[in-house]
């Protein structure tokens, strides 16, 4: 039996090597500092989330929605109720019908969901040369490579394409994007935002922070999940120990 | 059930009920004093573990159904509402989502245990057939459940799998339209899948009841594969196996909890966090891991078989694949009659034991191939593994009894236990 198991293992270990021949996109990588939310005890860095939200608001939100998030969710980033109210009020929400049967615009409230930049996909395509900027609510969970992928994509612009790859008009070269041609122009530039806490606004910092913000947007319950998991697993390990000793005790009558 | 003389219970309330409805006597008989071979290893715990998983899936599923909206416009968002706004919704959903995987892990181990120790053989054929029926029902339930979040993989998985029925000669297309309730996977499909996804677990529950009832007639098999010769070979189920199973179940739940709380999306496809879009086909449509071996067999049949000297296709590659896929499970149904060796356990069948691991290797390989794009060399490897799978059942099992020299069986379970100790 072990011989066959070893064969099976060897087979599965060998195969990914040959699989690499089919990969045409560059393997994404994270920042040198890693992601604070990774690992069994990882948590979100609240300051980074706030900076990331600023990048989203000032840069990404021109084209990308975040429709699964409500403004009230921002309290989780460390914003006060008043701050959240002010952020929500900057948005214009279409409401109604009122008593006259008319739709009307009003300032956003914390209970509103994030207002998307375009009323529908067609409008989004029309404004973006036919390309549809995806909603970012779940982008980190919806792409292979997750945080690393989005970070690599955001920082992967500006490289010279290999000679055999022709870049179509209106497209941009990015080795991390499937097919290497992306309609989105390089979104981040040095100094695109000014961080209030003095964090240098390099492309790398902006990407790092906005990716952390988007990771939170995709998985806002990550911290409570890991905290609960710790309690559950600790309890179960102790419980398993008790079960094992009871089992030993009961079975000892037989031997 | 309880036709022998009934023993009174001390507790007067329990006794009062039991005189009128002997449910406590039955429990006592079937789970208390039930004589069970004394030599089970931990592989025998996976039946109980699977039972726990079924219960966990039903309980979490009922709560999810309270918030889920089966409509193409709202399904995806309602799942995200559960993840974000429903109290502990994220936990219930991750328990349910990963529960499907854990259920299949438990059931696959349970099935391979049965194959290894010959648990499908006389007198347990019907017990085995009921088990394979449960597997089929589970597959249908899991498939439809995966459609409900209405992500990209939900939609395209549903499209690919339902389209398989179009391979049925003559009426295929009509059958598919009937399954869909329309001309594509759409709202009607989602609604009926939700209805069936809620119904089938209770059907499974009922078949599990029959499975257990049949088990309690024949009694359990055991690692030696020989029948208990008397009371010295058995022990009462309670407390010995209740506590042993409880310990094994706890270990299994630890693994389950680690997945739910620390890697809840490890087994899922990222594409399913993209809302379903009939206009955009994902680059690779891949089913959940527990279907990958079957998916690989489906795709390993790549030829159209013609009537000789004509262009009339007798068996299209699609129909061939579907026949292979369903055939792989059909073989399990007839396994008790394919294997005529009187010796049950692989422990005493040296060649069968090796071939068993070849079968496991073929299944693992098929699982790996199923997750890969249909390109060479994957297709060829998948084809070889498919041939190995079918050869195990159709060639090895019937022929083995003629050529295999089985080892001498121990006189009794007790003897084999004492020899080891």
Task: Give a quick precis of the structure.
The complex is a heterodimer of chains A (255) and B (421). With 255 residues, chain A is mainly alpha-helical.
Your description of this structure?
The complex is a heterodimer of chains A (255) and B (421). With 255 residues, chain A is mostly helical. Chain A is built from seven helices and four strands. In chain A, the strands form two sheets. Chain A has a two-stranded antiparallel sheet. A two-stranded antiparallel sheet of chain A has the order 3-4. In chain A, a hairpin with an 8-residue loop joins β1 and β2. In chain A, α2 crosses α6 and α5 packs antiparallel against α6. Chain B is mainly α. Chain B has two domains: 236 residues, Cytochrome Bc1 Complex, Chain C; 131 residues, no CATH class. Chain B contains 15 helices and four strands. In chain B, the strands form two sheets. In chain B, strands 1-2 form a two-stranded antiparallel sheet. In chain B, strands 3-4 form a two-stranded antiparallel ribbon. In chain B, α6 crosses α7. Chain B is globular, with a radius of gyration of 24 Å. Classes of the chains: A mainly alpha (255), B mainly alpha (421). At the A-B interface, α1 and α7 of A face α4, α5, α10 and α13 of B.
Please report which band the strand proportion of chain B falls in: under 5%, 5-15%, 15-25%, 25-35%, 35-45% or over 45%.
under 5%
Termini gap of chain B: 37 Å
Q: If interface size is counted as residues with C-beta under 8 Å from the partner's C-beta, which chains form the largest one?
A: A-B, 45 and 45 residues
CATH architecture of the largest domain in chain B: Up-down Bundle
The mean pLDDT of chain A is: 90
Query: Which spans of chain B of ≥5 residues are poorly predicted at pLDDT below 50?
Result: none
Main β-sheet of chain B, in a few words?
2 strands, antiparallel
Instruction: Please report the number of helical segments of chain A.
Output: 7
Poorly predicted parts of chain A:
9-23
- What is the CATH class designation of the largest domain in chain B? Mainly Alpha
Q: What's the domain count of chain B?
A: 2
How many distinct beta strands of chain B?
4
The percentage helix of chain B is 55-70%
Give the integer mean of the pLDDT values of chain B.
94
Query: Can you tell me the CATH topology of the largest domain in chain B?
Result: Cytochrome Bc1 Complex, Chain C
